[in-house]
Amino acid sequence: MLRRVVQEVLQGLFDSVADQGSTTAGRIQERIEASGLRLDDRRLQITMARLAEMGDGPIDGQTFGRIVCDEALMLKRAFNSQLVIPEWQDFCADIHAIYKSVAPDRSGANADYIPILRDADSEPWGVAVCSVDGQRLAIGDVDIYHSIQSVSKPLTYAYSLATEGVGFTHQFVGVEPSGRPFNSLELLPDQRPYNPCVNAGAIIVAGIVASATPGLNSRQITQKLMDLWSDLCGGLGDVRFSEETMLSERETADTNFAIAYLLRGRMGLPRGVDLHLMMDVYLSCCSIEMTARMFSVAAATLANGGVCPISGVQVLDTEVVKRTLSVMQAAGMYDNAGSFTIEIGLPAKSGVAGAVMVVVPNLMGIATFSPRLDAYGNSVRGVGFCRELVDRFTFHMYDSLSGGRSGCKRDPRESQTNRKKRDLSDLRWGAQCGDRTALLVRERMLNSMLAITLADGEIEDPEIEAMACIYTELMGAPLDRDELRRLAGSMVAQVAAADPVDVLLRQLRCDRPLLDDNARELILESAFRVACSDGEIEPQEDRLLRSLAEALGIGAGVLDLEIDRFRRCSPTRLA
Ligand code: GLN
Fold this sequence. Notes:
Elements: H1 2-17, H2 25-34, H3 45-54, H4 61-68, H5 72-79, H6 88-102, H7 115-118, E1 126-131, E2 136-140, E3 146-147, H8 152-164, H9 166-172, H10 199-211, H11 218-232, E4 240-241, H12 243-251, H13 254-267, H14 275-286, E5 288-290, H15 292-303, H16 318-331, H17 337-343, E6 348-350, E7 355-360, E8 364-369, H18 380-392, H19 416-432, H20 436-455, H21 461-475, H22 481-494, H23 500-511, H24 517-532, H25 539-552, H26 556-569
Antiparallel strand pairs: 1-2, 1-8, 3-5, 4-5, 6-7, 7-8
Residues 149-150, 182-183, 199, 249, 256, 286, 351-352, 377 line the site of glutamine.
């Protein structure tokens, strides 16, 4: 019985990549990559090795079974859209669009306190994403090694929690946001540093870690943290160390030394650790070098509660990760952390070399790299990317509130097709049986379609036909052409008294609280489809779509994504 089930699953997998009873290694690999998994994923190691042996030759059903059987579950999830982001290709297209829209921003400036950062190329721009299922995307300059600087801080803290315990660690450092610049000398009233993400906190945490291993020098201690980073990245790329950065850091560390002396004077150092050893460990942690691609996997490990998505290894205890993310949420973006939390609502950590590491719990890790910094010391493009990201997706920690209205942001966890199918069937049914809300939605849809058509010129028979078809496609029910003609007539007649578009926008604003996300999205979608129906979105249609979205409470970012997607897919468009 079990054997039969296994056979059926394998057969199903085979069928999805086979053509006339045979497939090739290339096709199987293509299919894996389309799901977001990469070919160097350790969870597919055996399959990949066997495929490599096959070369380009044909693979029949039986051979396929032998090749994939050890990792069939992973493969099944990949082939059947069962990974956490089921429509990976769509999601990638959206991330590409955000990447492109942030790229032109050249404001801000490199950190200039040490030559290696001051003289670094300011232009690189990279974004890397890794989902908790190990689906990966990398765009732009994601393989440039740069010093990790303050991104080291939450992880040194996590290491201290894991090895020295919560109690001991917090004898020396608090968890309160400081509201002060990262290198401020200010301490909590009990003389502890505010939190592990400001320099004072990170210095004392480096002291805790250094004090635990008497006899080891700073490089040996730093190596332990580098090993932790490497595990967090699932061994993707070498974690390096920059001697040059370390030496410059030490030469310019007057304020950091002042902090260290202050800490020793006020509360004493953990286990009486040597102040210079503590400082060397702190500065060495800042001088570790990694890439955005690597950071994205480390962030995904945090998003995944400490289990690295691509190696399957539990690198950190989930309790440790919870604390670490909480501290990042409260203090990860320097003294801009409060605004960042309100606006973006995600735990993140930045470093002065230009890295930002962002965690979307239970979903993905994101890393950006762009060296120009804002006044707080955060990468300008990195923060810009986060802003646009939460403008389009339900990633803000409180997007789940919104009174059930998310502004029609997308949730890439849910397959669009599934969601649409489910919600539409409710509305269709409601409109058929005379439900008031469903009928309201229907009326607003018709008026929005007419408004867009009017914006583009006259309403004649071909336009009526196009609108009726779009309506039928969306609502699964026929539409009486005469009803549409009558409505069009009354809209045109209205023009003398009041602008029908203004009337419609006012109505929509007023209906808004009555309509859920799907109803509002449907109204905008009907107008959007009409605008697209001639193969091009004209400027006046674009403007009206934006007004409709605004009136419906749908974010501009959401509409941008739709328009962008249409332009990408539309073969008739030249620009
Ligand atoms: N090495 C820097 C310092 O200690 C790190 C600062 C940072 O990334 N914010 O001053």
